[in-house]
UniProtKB/TrEMBL annotation:
Any Gene Ontology biological process: tubulin complex assembly
Organism for this UniProt entry: Hypocrea jecorina (strain QM6a)
InterPro entries xrefs: TBCA (IPR004226), TBCA_sf (IPR036126)
Compositional bias segments (type: Basic and acidic residues): 29-42
Keywords from the UniProt entry: Chaperone, Cytoplasm, Cytoskeleton, Microtubule
MF GO annotations: beta-tubulin binding
Protein name, per record: Tubulin-specific chaperone A
Localization (cell): Cytoplasm, Cytoskeleton
Entry keyword Transcription regulation: no
Region (Disordered): 29-50
GO CC terms of this entry: cytosol; microtubule
One Pfam family cited in the UniProt record for this chain: TBCA
Family: Belongs to the TBCA family.
């Protein structure tokens, strides 16, 4: 079996990075919910047995901040991968050796990346 073409590799990279970003968005929502629940627990006076609810809240807040910090460098990597894929698609359209399926998959990945970038 021949090795995958650069177009297939670049398409996979864009797809993987978009999935990674979606995963981080989901994680951020979950962590923010934990922070809110912990804040409500503290406000209602329900402290756990060891009295460390404030410490737990700070830990959850730290995780939220660390997750938020991932987005900017990840978006930069996505944009770089998209640019590379756009260049490869343009080269293949001018007369490359990629199959129609590979080209269609690459264009679909580009459309998805542009749609996600517009909503971000």
């Amino acid at each position: 079996m021949p090795p995958p073409s650069p177009l297939v590799i670049a398409t996979g990279a864009v797809t993987r990075l978009l999935k990674e970003e979606a995963s981080y968005h989901k994680e951020l929502q979950e962590q923010e919910a934990k922070v809110k629940a912990q804040e409500e627990k503290i406000q209602s006076g329900q402290d756990d047995e060891e009295g460390n609810a404030t410490y737990i809240l700070k830990q959850h807040q730290m995780v939220v901040e660390q997750t938020r910090a991932v987005f900017k460098p990840l978006r930069t990597r996505i944009n770089q991968a998209v640019e590379k894929l756009e260049d490869l698609v343009a080269a293949e359209e001018k007369g490359g050796s990629a199959s129609e399926e590979e080209l269609a998959n690459a264009k679909a990945a580009l459309e998805k990346a542009k749609a996600e970038n517009a909503s971000a």
